[in-house]
TrEMBL record:
One of its GO terms (molecular function) is transmembrane transporter activity. InterPro entries: AAA+_ATPase, ABC_transporter-like_ATP-bd, ABC_transporter-like_CS, ABC_transpr_LolD-like, MacB-like_ATP-bd, P-loop_NTPase. Its EC number is 3.6.3.-. The keyword Transport applies. The keyword rRNA-binding does not apply. Keywords: ATP-binding, Hydrolase, Nucleotide-binding, Transport. This is ABC-type transporter, ATP-binding protein. Gene3D superfamilies: P-loop containing nucleotide triphosphate hydrolases (3.40.50.300). It holds the Pfam family ABC_tran. It comes from Desulfotignum phosphitoxidans DSM 13687. PROSITE patterns: ABC_TRANSPORTER_1, ABC_TRANSPORTER_2.
C-alpha cells in the first residue's frame, strides 16, 4: 500500500545552510494497517507526512502508494492523488471558517464533483455524532467537535490512506481520547490505512505498528 525507499529531504536556509531532515528513510506498510510515527519535536515527522501527502517532494528516493511513485506524477495527476487517494487530519483541524460543519464535510465531494453529496454528508455527520451541529460554523464548535468534522471530511472520499498529524494535540486528555476512539473505530471498520504522527504515547499505543523518527531515520 505504502512503500518508501531511500527518501532524503533537506531544507536550505540562507543563514544556517543546509539542514538534513530525512536521511534514507524507508518503510513498507500493508493496506489496512495503522502506523504511529513518534519522535522528538523537529525530528521531521510533519516533513515526512507532507512528502507522503504529495505536498512536498523529496530530494531523493521513491514514495509508492498502491504501486505508483507519487514523486513522478505531473501536477494534474498529483492534484488528483491528493484529492481522491489520501486525506489529511491536522492538529489545528484546518476547517474552512466560513463553511458550516456539513459544508466542510461535503467539500471534498464537491471538489471531486461526486454524487449523493447530501446523503453521504448526513451519513458521516451521524457517524461522528454531529447531526445536531450540521449548521454550525467552526467558530461555533468546540475543539473536539471541530476535529470530528475534520475526521468526517477525511473519510467522506473513501481515501485509501489517511494521514494524521497530531490529531489530538489541541484537545484535552478526555476529548482527545474520545476523538481517537472515533478515528480508530472508523478506520478499522472501513479497513483504511492510517499513518499517525504523534508525541502522544497513548495514541501511538493504539496503532498496530510504531516507528520512531530519530536523526533523520526511522527505527
Ligand atoms: N520549509 C522549511 N524550511 C526550512 N526548514 C524547515 C522547513 N520545514 C521544516 N523545517 C525544519 O525541519 C525540521 C523538521 O521539522 P518538522 O516540522 O518535520 O518536525 P516535527 O517532527 O513535525 O516537529 P513537531 O513535533 O514539533 O511538530 C525542523 O528542524 C524544521 O525547522
Ligand atoms: Mg510536526
Amino acid at each position: 500500500m505504502l512503500e518508501l525507499s531511500g527518501v532524503d529531504k533537506s531544507f536550505h536556509l540562507p543563514d544556517t545552510g543546509r539542514v538534513m531532515v530525512l536521511n534514507q528513510v524507508g518503510f513498507f506498510l500493508e493496506a489496512g494497517t495503522t502506523l504511529a510515527i513518534t519522535g522528538h519535536s523537529g525530528s521531521g515527522k510533519t516533513t515526512l507526512l507532507s512528502l507522503i501527502a504529495g505536498l512536498d517532494i523529496p530530494d531523493a528516493g521513491t514514495i509508492r502508494v498502491n504501486g505508483i511513485d507519487i514523486c513522478t506524477l505531473d501536477e494534474a495527476a498529483l492534484t488528483r492523488y491528493r484529492a481522491a487517494s489520501i486525506s489529511m487530519i491536522f492538529q489545528s483541524f484546518h476547517l474552512m471558517p466560513h463553511l458550516t460543519a456539513a459544508e466542510n464535510i461535503a467539500l471534498p465531494l464537491e471538489i471531486l464533483r461526486q454524487d449523493r453529496i447530501q446523503e453521504r454528508t448526513q451519513s458521516l455527520l451521524e457517524q461522528v455524532g454531529l447531526t445536531h451541529r450540521a449548521g454550525h460554523l467552526p467558530g461555533q464548535l468546540s475543539g473536539g467537535e471541530c476535529q470530528r468534522v475534520a475526521i468526517a471530511r477525511a473519510l467522506i472520499v473513501e481515501p485509501a490512506l489517511i494521514l494524521a498529524d497530531e490529531p489530538t494535540g489541541n484537545l484535552d486528555t478526555d476529548t482527545g481520547k474520545k476523538v481517537a476512539d472515533l478515528l480508530f473505530n472508523l478506520v478499522e471498520t472501513r479497513r483504511k490505512t492510517l499513518v499517525v504522527v504523534t508525541h502522544n504515547q497513548d495514541l501511538a499505543a493504539r496503532c498496530r505498528e510504531t516507528k520512531i523518527l530519530s536523526r533523520g531515520n526511522l527505527a
